Request: fold
Amino acid sequence: MSKLFVDQVDPKTATTLTLGTSGDTVSIPTGVGLTATDEVKTNKISPASGTAFTLGDSGDTFTVPSGVTFANSGTATGFGDTSYYVKITNVNGTNSVGDISINDCFSTTYRTYLVTFQFENDRGGNQIWMRFQADDDSTFDSNYRYACHQTNDGGTESTRVSTGDTKWIMTGGTGGGNSSIFGGCFGFMYVHNPYTIATGEAGAGNIYRCGWNAQYNEYDDSGHVVNSVATGMLEQNSYNVAGLRFLPSANYVEKRNVTVWGLKEY
Reply:
């Protein structure tokens, strides 16, 4: 093997230069750098050794033009989470259960939570209730103040209110045990300030009354579709609210799908 000393290599004809032949390997020793001031086209970039590949140096900026799509079939880390909603937990099933307890889904990490839900009782005529749970998974059984306005598909309006109930009564008698639907009640609710406020946030270190607002649909036991808008507050601020419990007024909940999301605000 001999060496070729040259300051520049140009194509003999036209403007295309080929380096090597199919099957060849071109080796660039350690310490040798390649500088390209124009476009580099290749089908694959792999690390020379090991499994790590570094693109650029600290302070560099890489621009991705409009219209370019990254197709990621692996795991991307270190890019930062651009989503403001962080999934915390999901509970689902189709067997009959006495209640749906979601323990320890609230914490000091977030102060606002989104809860999406779908429920169906195992038979018609029963209501759906909700209660909050404490750190020890015990249930808060008093001091629920709420107001709910409902409109059904016939235009009939009604209200359901309380200044101190033992639970939040979410629905009237729902249609249950219906194989053609998943959820005699479905919608979403936001839960506000359930837990001690984190350091660096407004009101840090305090426990405030936990509030909620919700919008959801109900398929009632008369066959009507009912739209409900509700708001409420658990009137205590001595203990953290750490979880949720949904339950029927009697018998069982059958179909259910509940997801809790934390909302990033800080």
User: Anything to note?
Assistant: The CA atoms of residues 200 and 266 lie 9 Å apart. The mean pLDDT is 91. The radius of gyration is 30 Å.
